[in-house]
């Protein structure tokens, strides 16, 4: 787990942030299309839930998250859309650590 300082550093350094997003995306993008489809997003959401001991998301949960992330509504999550998600997750980690 990255420390608070690491996360702050990543959020202020576009090169590091892009690298992180690229690596994370490549891990999830199992068919190597350069974008994420609903199945790929669903797989990672279920995996993360299992890893943290949470209830796995339902299909409608996944559809909801996907629709929210797919800003241009083309049915895929592209690099910029995925980057928005990562930035949000990192900011959430920072703000929950403050609480
Ligand atoms: Ca899209």
UniProtKB/TrEMBL annotation:
* SMART domains registered for this protein in UniProt: EFh
Q: What GO MF annotations does this protein's record show?
A: calcium ion binding
The answer to whether UniProt assigns keyword ATP-binding to this entry is no
* Keywords noted in UniProt: Calcium
* Record InterPro entries: EF-hand-dom_pair (IPR011992), EF_Hand_1_Ca_BS (IPR018247), EF_hand_dom (IPR002048), S100/CaBP7/8-like_CS (IPR001751)
Span of domain EF-hand = 16-51, 57-92
Matching CDD domains: EFh
Has the keyword Calcium been applied to this entry?
Answer: yes
The name under which this protein is listed is EF-hand domain-containing protein
- Organism of origin is Blepharisma stoltei
Ranked from the top, the taxonomy reads: Eukaryota, Sar, Alveolata, Ciliophora, Postciliodesmatophora
